[in-house]
Amino acid sequence: MGPSPEERDAAFHKQVNERAKAVDKLLQQKQYEAALQESLTKPPIGCKVQSTKDKNLKTVLAVISSAPSDEAKIRAMIEKMHNSSGDLCTTLMKYIYRGLAEGQYSGTLFKWHALTAAIAGNGTIVRAMTDRKTV
Predict the structure, then answer these.
(1) Helix/strand/coil (H/E/C) assignment for every residue in 62-99
(2) SS3 1
(3) CA angle (112 as vertex; 107, 113 as ends), nearest 5
(4) Distance between alpha carbon 84 and the CA centroid of its chain, in Å?
(5) CA quadruple 102, 106, 110, 113: dihedral sign
(6) What's the Cα-to-Cα distance from 41 to each of 4, 69, 71, 107, 111, rounded to whole Å?
(7) How many CA atoms does the CB half-sphere of 37 hold within 13 Å?
(8) pTM above 0.85, yes or no
(9) From CA 76, how far away is CA 71, in angstroms rounded?
(10) One digit per residue, pLDDT tens: the chain, 135 residues?
(11) CB 3.0–4.6 Å: which of 34, 40, 124, 126 could bond 120 by disulfide?
């Protein structure tokens, strides 16, 4: 028998808090690419505690809003991430939509959306919108 739902949610909470600290450290060092990958790795999918999911959204949005706004630099980060793991691009797209639904950083998120779709393809949009595993 596996962990109880409460134990699993507590583990998600701990993981998200540790990730937020690691991402903050990377952002302070201006390592945006590493911060982006760290923020998207192992999202709290399956977590029933909304505040935990919200904290991870805040972490991802902190990276997106802190990263250089230069389109070439964003494109390079997304391309590298796409080449290493296409799943991260789908996760990124999920967080872009979640951020847009929250009404935060809309201009920046639309730019990231366009670049992610251009690099990872429209399939990433379809996967992000149809996957029942929400972020």
Answers:
(1) HHHHHCCCCHHHHHHHHHHHHHHCHHHHHHHHHHHHHH
(2) coil
(3) 95
(4) 15
(5) negative
(6) 23, 22, 23, 24, 22
(7) 14
(8) yes
(9) 9
(10) 788 999 999 999 999 999 999 999 999 999 999 999 999 999 999 999 999 999 999 999 999 999 999 999 999 999 999 999 879 999 999 999 999 999 989 999 999 999 999 999 999 999 999 999 999
(11) 124
CB-CB contact of 120 with 89 (8 Å): yes
Q: Are 56 and 134 in contact (CB under 8 A)?
A: no
Q: Is 103 exposed, middle or buried (0-12, 13-18, 19+ CB in 10 A)?
A: exposed
Structure tokens at 94: 């999920």
